[in-house]
Every structure is written in C-alpha cells, then in structure tokens.
Amino acid sequence: MPAESNHHRPKTVLLWFRKDLRLSDNAALATAVDEGTTVIPVYILEPSEAGTGPLGAAQAWWLHHSLASLAASLKAGGSGLVLRRGPAAEVLETLIAETGADAVFWNRRYDPPGIAIDKAIKAGLTERGITVRSFAGQILHEPTKLKTAAGGNFRVYTPFWKALDGSGEPAEPIPAPSRVPAPDEWPKSDTLSDWSLLPTKPNWAKGFEAEWQPGEEGAQTRLADFVATGLKGYRTRRDFPGEAYVSKLSPHLALGEISPASVWHATRGLSDDYSAEDYIHFRKELVWRDFSYHLLFHFPDLATRNWNEKFDAFPWHDNPGLLDKWKKGQTGYPIVDAGMRQLWQTGWMHNRVRMIVASFLIKDLLIDWREGERWFRDTLVDADPASNAASWQWVAGSGADAAPFFRIFNPITQGEKFDPEGQYVRRFVPELKAMPDKFIHKPWEAPLLVLKESGVSLGKTYPKPIIDHGKARDAAMAAFQGLKGE
Ligand SMILES: Cc1cc2nc3c(=O)[nH]c(=O)nc-3n(C[C@H](O)[C@H](O)[C@H](O)COP(=O)(O)OP(=O)(O)OC[C@H]3O[C@@H](n4cnc5c(N)ncnc54)[C@H](O)[C@@H]3O)c2cc1C
Questions:
Q1: Residue 147 located in a structural domain
Q2: pLDDT digits (tens, 9 = 90+) for 166-188
Q3: In CATH, what number is assigned to the domain containing residue 44?
Q4: Phi, psi of 247 (to 5 degrees)
Q5: Is 106 marked active-site?
Q6: Which domain holds residue 349?
Q7: What's CA 249's distance to the chain center, in Å?
Q8: What is the pLDDT of residues 191-228, one digit of tens each?
Q9: 316 is catalytic
Q10: Domain check: are 274 and 345 in the same one?
Q11: Statement: the pTM of the whole predicted model exceeds 0.70
Q12: Catalytic residue among 212, 369, 375, 394
C-alpha cells in the first residue's frame, strides 16, 4: 500500500535511507531505480531530540560500519551515498535546492516521533509539488493492517500471531538493483568519520569487532549460517545461552540491513531435514518484533509509561549504587553478571539472559524498569525502540501481554537449568572458570576448600551476592501486593 502523491515519472529521486540500510528487498530503492532518471541516495543523521531518544553508543558504532558498507555497495553499483546531518526537513530542502530533485522516496518507519517527522515532511514537500512516495518493508505487516476480529488493535501476542500467520506469506523479497543511475554531479557529502560515531578513548568496542560484521553482506552471511547450522534444534536449544542456536540477526534487523520478509523467506521450502517445529518457532519469535511495533504504534509512550497504569504507584527504589553494580556485572549472581558483561563486551545479550537480568533489576533490586530500558538502549547494538520497550514492560509485568509480576526469575535455578555446565558463565565471568559445575551458579555455597582450589575469594576476586534472592523475592511480592487493586 504505497502512500503516493503526485505520481508521475520523476527525473531525480532523493532516496532517503533510514532504518533500511540495504539494497535488496528495498521497495523505495527498487522503485526509484525503476522510475527515476537519476537516484541520489542520502542518509541523514537526525538530531537525537527528534527521534525516539538518543542514538545509543553501541548502535552508533554499528551505524558507522553499516553506513560504510552501504556506501561501498552503492559505489559498486555505480552510485554513492550522500551523508548529511541535521533536522531531516531542512536537509531535504537543502538537497532539493542543490540538486533540483523532483521526488523523495523512503521506506516507512513506525516509531511515533519518526512518523510525526515524516508526515510533516511529506505534507510540506507535496504542497510544493515534489513527489513523495513511501513504502513498506521494515516489518512484516504494517501496524494498521492487522486487526482483531472486533476490528480493534491487538494487546495479546497469540491472536496477533494467528492473524499475521493467517494473512498470507510476506511477498518474495525484491532483488537488489545491479546499477543505480547516478547524477552527473554529486552534491557534497559529510565525511563519515567526522560524525564521531565510533568510540575513541577508551575504545570500548574492541570486543564488537571480533563478534560482528555490520552491513548487508554480514546480515546475509549470518542468516545463511544460521539456517545451515542453528535452525535445526532452535525450538529446544534457543534458551541455552552457551550454545549457538539463535540467529543473532537482531542488530542487522534493527538497522534494516536485512528485511524481515527476507528472513521469513529463508525459512520457506526447506528440506525434510528441518522440522516445522523449529522454523515455525523461529517465525514466531520474528513476529514478536512485529507485535512490539504494533504495541508501540498504538501506544506511543511504550518506553516511558506503564501500559498498565496500576504500576504507576509501584514503590521503586532509587539506588544508584546497586544499579551501577548491575550495569557492571558485579551482582554476585554469575548468570546475571555473565549477561551484563556479554552486553558490555559484545553489545548483545542472549534472550534468556535478558529476561533473567531484567527480572533481577526489577524484582530483586526493585529498580524501575525504565532504568534498564535506558541502559539497554545505550549498550545494545540491536537497540530497538519497539522491542526494547515492549520487552522491558513484559518482564516488569506492566506491559500489554506481560509476564505476571509474580513470575520472578530465580537467577540460580535459571542458571542451573539453562547453563548447566556453566559454559556461558565461564566465558564471561572468567574469575569463576575453575569452579565445579555444582557451584558455578552459587559460588557462595561452595566449601572454602573448593573456593580455594578454584582460585576464588568471595568479596575479593568475585563479589558476594549484593542481595539475598529469597528475601528480595518476598519484598517484591509485598510491594506488588501493596498496589491498589491487587
Ligand atoms: C529486557 C529485554 C530487552 C530487549 N531489547 C531488545 C532490543 O532492544 N532489540 C531487539 O531486537 N530485541 C530485544 N529483545 C528481544 C530479544 O531478546 C532479541 O530480539 C533477541 O535476543 C535477539 O537475538 P537473535 O537475533 O539471536 O534472536 P532469534 O531468537 O534468532 O530471533 C530472530 C529475531 O526475532 C526477533 N525477536 C526474537 N525474540 C524477540 C522478542 N522477545 N521481542 C522482539 N523481537 C524478538 C528479533 O528481531 C530476532 O533477531 C529484548 C528482550 C528483553 C527480555
């Protein structure tokens, strides 16, 4: 359903890249190449106050490399990428004046501030006779398309999944254009390094480089590898953070280096070696991303306001000291610390562990979920305004289709169940490397001799638990029961 205005054959199209940093399955690009005499690809670094909060530092690292990769791909196709910085409306006006462009194309975004910006730009440009066309592709189904049987918006995931799954397969991905018709003269571009998206002193992103290949090619390689080796067994193994049964596609999806339709497409027509349980489960996870956008679209304050207003009265603890220990992975609970350190070192954390650390912050430390949302937004390479906010509210119990508050993750039993040999903990908490499996998730219960033999001195080489989980659980339940209406 491309929203169109003044549909005529444009001479020069400004192709505005946003969270769609790819050439394949990019409807705006494909149409611009089909219809425009020349196409000028542009990326605008918009001021943070215009968007959904500031661009997090980890994602800024990713964005730098992703833009470099996109520019290289465009160059290989005979084109280039113009980089500009500033409010998008002003930048587009300037570029139109400089290039004589008569059209602007983009793929739609679904975060509320982004939508507001785009609407205003579209109205302003259309009024001046510039063709503006926008296209779908960031999610599988646009938030306005899927409706409940009663014609309303979804609040619960399962009926959403059923509606989405029943509404037909996403369209076949559009191939990348082999050439992008370039202008005779290029407008000036900023230099990527001048945007200072990379950390300098200290370079905390060193661990990212070994882990990731930002850009479209990296995304496609990641998808192919996952389908070849991780998808078989996904349903049962995806919860084990020490194993490689998840796709790690989230940062690529967050900046649109690969379309969700392409990811879905890769799970079609698989050989009999694949069990439907695995790929359907994988699709269901992918659809949580769509569901999160559905929620954000219909509840724009998802990152800042409790969906369930009852939680407005929750007696959160303001405790910067404990918050800091959580951020640094120094809580004394190995699975929590491993997760927080994986996040810091690699910019990503396994989903099971995200739930454990989030539950720990909210329900053991009684710290407001918004503190966690903010920290994740700054440190995740896959930071996403919809998935992050929806997931934090899910864990808090304040969300639309949330886990009930009384579901409090026990960091010891969760560790024992999902990291039974401590593979994951040993990788990210090396000071516990030599602990026997029996005590890897509760070193404080180990006899002194075992601690000694493992080179662990609690309180010195590794912290003692910053809180007693059992007591914390009781305190959380008491706080929750104190809320009106419970
Ligand atoms: C507290 C918390 C915060 C989170 N913040 C984010 C975030 O900022 N950005 C983000 O992309 N995901 C977020 N998630 C969801 C989920 O943890 C990640 O999407 C997932 O771990 C990414 O790893 P993967 O690509 O290997 O996932 P896979 O298991 O391979 O799943 C494939 C894709 O499906 C989507 N997906 C899977 N699970 C979810 C989910 N629960 N919610 C939404 N989409 C999902 C992702 O796009 C993912 O790349 C958060 C979860 C929690 C509990």
A1: yes
A2: 998 899 999 999 999 999 999 99
A3: 3.40.50.620
A4: -80, -25
A5: no
A6: 309-485
A7: 9
A8: 999 999 999 888 999 999 999 999 999 999 999 999 99
A9: yes
A10: no
A11: yes
A12: 369
